[in-house]
Amino acid sequence: MREETFEIRPLCPAFGAELLGVDLSQSVDEELYRRIRAAFLTHQLLLLRDQDLSPAKHVELGRRFGEVQVHVMNQYHADGFAELYFLSNLDDKGTPSGKHPDKGTLAWHTDGSWRQVTGQATLLYAVEVPVEGGETHFCDMYGAFEALSDARRRQLEKMRAIHNLDFSRSRRHGEDPMSEEQKKAVPPVSHPVVRTHPETGRKCLFLGDHAETIAGFEYQTGRLLVEEINAEAVRPELTYRHRWLPADLVIWDNRCLMHRATPFDVARERRVMRRCTILGEVPQ
Ligand SMILES: [Fe+2]
To answer: What phi, psi does 206 have (nearest 5°)?
Structure first.
């Protein structure tokens, strides 16, 4: 019998919670989903350990959160599911290839900010994890906004940033550039630097590594400003560092968190992650 209730254990003072007593290999009924959803909005990030989550169940759970993103970079599609994005450093023979699957994930970002409709939730599942490194770090963008002076808040509230996947990928990847067709599918978009979370009504910073410059500013001035605000946003006291165990599922809210992965030895260690990103809305 599946338990109808779960226990919530905070992960760090600023945000994040582990849910204990949930078995996602069973179907998630309306009441359980409602409670998970409420915890997700309150805590911004949920950790569920020891989950036997098949690709089909992963997509099924993702669909409960909303419309699932089919990523433009179709070389990453996992296990035949276009809704899943596969991050693995293993080659065809299943041995470490020495190549990082997505260097862009090593810089602080928010998933899908390069689209008009940005990422809402990401559901990341650990299949194989390295002994060292390959962590995921998260920082609280509500807290980052609240930590600013009134003057700085007013200044940033007037700004819109240009987010551009081609920019962030070209900068972070020496290899594997986007094809012309992929670039055409995702032209640069602008989003407010301070957004209001559509469900909680709280204000937060919204920027990250896909942001290239600030609309209406001279390019280089805007570029430097993006770097400055990104650096200002990441505060140790507002950061949760997740050390993965196999069968961990982490669900986070991209609207009010940024995240990054940390490096690992891609030639020796194995890291296989499965990701499902849920579309949100146009940031306001
Ligand atoms: Fe990401």
So the answer is: -145, 105
